[in-house]
């Protein structure tokens, strides 16, 4: 079966689907001279509000580099990135830190929770650092949504991997960020737990209108997204919507 025959219609765009993240002609070169590596070679891409995008591609294709640049954790060699219509590419460090705190949530493969803090304290921490008070009712609905309202006093070491990742997702959602960036969020989890985490990310898009950009090499993970970008050698080579897991597999096979 060809790829186009396996596509299913994508859901209609959300009513307020303005662009929340935009990259224009982004390049990233590591190193210099003969040792230079062009990790990104001219990426122009928009992410509309309330959409779940997966970023796929072979190892070394530039996925992590792109995510770090979109999130203001790294600076492009040339080109620009806007978040909520504000160019972040030339911001000073302090401004960038504030922007990230305000507008971006992160979920990492390795959970990155603070071991001395309880689940609830981990969730509250970014807001506390930003001098904001966690909104009580929002936090309660988050704790329920991630299934941790009875484990809120537990430390990360007293929680399973899946529970720890659910804490990390609640932490990312707590500030109602403009966008959540997730880098291989299911990379350390078994298949069943991965399914629960993907389900939770999907629900945060459907129920809270969260915008998510998720880097993954797992076709099943990408299959829950609305849109899948495929990178190869530092370029976006395909931008697809409504792909089945099988179709994603087929495309990855052509890129590797
Ligand atoms: N800090 C770095 N210094 C030099 N080269 C790097 C660095 N980070 C990544 N690269 C190179 O850039 C390319 C893209 O890497 P990366 O964005 O990590 O790809 P992916 O996440 O898709 O595996 C690879 O060739 C990688 O070796
Ligand atoms: Mg990577």
From TrEMBL:
CDD domains tied to this protein: ABC_MJ0796_LolCDE_FtsE
GO molecular function, one term: ATP hydrolysis activity
Keyword tags: ATP-binding, Nucleotide-binding, Transport
Keyword Transport in record: yes
InterPro entries given in the database record: AAA+_ATPase (IPR003593), ABC_transporter-like_ATP-bd (IPR003439), ABC_transporter-like_CS (IPR017871), ABC_transpr_LolD-like (IPR015854), MacB-like_ATP-bd (IPR017911), P-loop_NTPase (IPR027417)
Key word ATP-binding present: yes
Domain ABC transporter residue range list: 21-255
One GO term describing the cellular component: plasma membrane
Any Pfam family hit: ABC_tran
Designated name of the protein: ABC transporter, ATP-binding protein
Organism from which the protein derives: uncultured Thermoleophilia bacterium
